[in-house]
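Could you help me review a protein record that somebody else here produced? Here is the record exactly as it was handed to me:
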Amino acid sequence: MARGTQGTSAGSDVGSGTKRPRRPSVVDSSNHRWWVLGVVALAQLMVVLDATIVNIALPSAQTALGFSNGNRQWIVTAYALAFGSLLLLGGRLADLIGRKRTFLIGLIGFAVASAIGGGAPSFEVLVAARALQGMFGALLAPAALSLLTTTFTDPGERAKAFGIYGAIAGAGGAVGLLLGGLLTEYLNWRWCLYVNLIFAVIAFIGGMRLLRAGTQPDRPTLDLPGAILVSGGLFCIVYGFSNAERHPWSAPSTWGFLLVGVVLLVAFVWWQGRARQPLLPLRVVGDRDRGASFLAMFISGAGMFGVFLFLTYYLQRTLLYSPVKTGLAFLPMVAVIMIVSVTTTNLLVPRYGAKPIVPTGMLLSAGAMAWLTALDRNSTYAAHVLPPLLVLGVGLGMIFATGMNLATAGVKPRDAGVASAMVNTSQQVGGSIGTSLFNTLATSAATRYAAGKPPSAAVAAQAQLHSYSVAYWWASGFFAVGFVVTLLLYRRGVPASLSDPTAQGGAAM
């Protein structure tokens, strides 16, 4: 398996600031590259934090709109279903119609959907708005990352940019918890949606001023059968795991959707090998480093969103933290993720490559998850919660920025959108599957623990703690598998696509 090469790494939409063969550029001046990073990072933060910001607002929204506990999960699931199932299509549309145009359309649509959700008079309108947010987020996220990929082609600058971007992607969920708590406690639950208008307006103005609509000389056509197969397959997979939270695994609404999803995804892979211009060219996923990075994002997404969910429950229900205090409890982990992400991509990966970095991050994350299983009703934040959170921050910081960087390094400009979409798809689908799977396992564990015991508040509290512990063990197992997979798949040494800015192109099979 060899890497393909191409004479220039500059994308058709972005200028790089170093001398390259002249191409249409998105950025007016090389001095604007870091402003572009700010714009796309803000857009990415908006998309990532929206996966968690509504969680803390759910009780208040439920009281205001009067929907049942059974329907409550649809506020979260509607976003995950639309976002996860349409990301690959959104990434290819960025390659087809231009990254700037797709980016701006995604921003406008996300803002409008957020305004509809914030003013929702009923449960049905709120669910529809969340689905719309997911749909436009699926346009916005891959366009943002592909802009970053084609803007920063110098290895040194690329490392810094991806360190910052990876830190935001890793910390966005925790920022969402904090921001959701602040807005819910001091303003209103509706501001958890309205706040996106502020982010979107700033990012839109920056995008309009800093980006130019470049032309794509070898623009691909849309693979419609592939889009239908992969969107349908991802929808069924995410929906099947979501159903497992409310129905047994033996229910047709659970295993049936999972089976159909797997069949559709297998058919998608088969079709991609035969389509003239496939939605996801196999050259994009055929490179070992890139494939390992996609798997790393999937596994870490599952583990990260799992810990956010159950640790949030623990802090609020067991330690009786307020929403704001719960969000603040995650801030040290956020700070560590950001510091480690930037340090890793700037100092460690350029010297040692990904092989020792990502597996070590997986091992640290697995250890942190196992450490969290010791939490009980007598635990304190400083002595028992904070230490494993800091270790988890180090582990995730080593995984996210490195994975995002190598997942998009060496990709041909015409494939930058779909490669970026694969990064987001891996993380989002992993998060959706992890959250649903861990929640199902935790609920079953709590039921088994309480079975045969006299009902009491103490038994109920201990059953909950046991369920959290089971979820942490499973998350630890996910990261342990990630350690083995990334240790085996990543190549030794520094990839040519990172050390040599001219070594761009898809991997040749």
User: Anything to note?
Assistant: DSSP finds 19 helices and two strands in the chain.
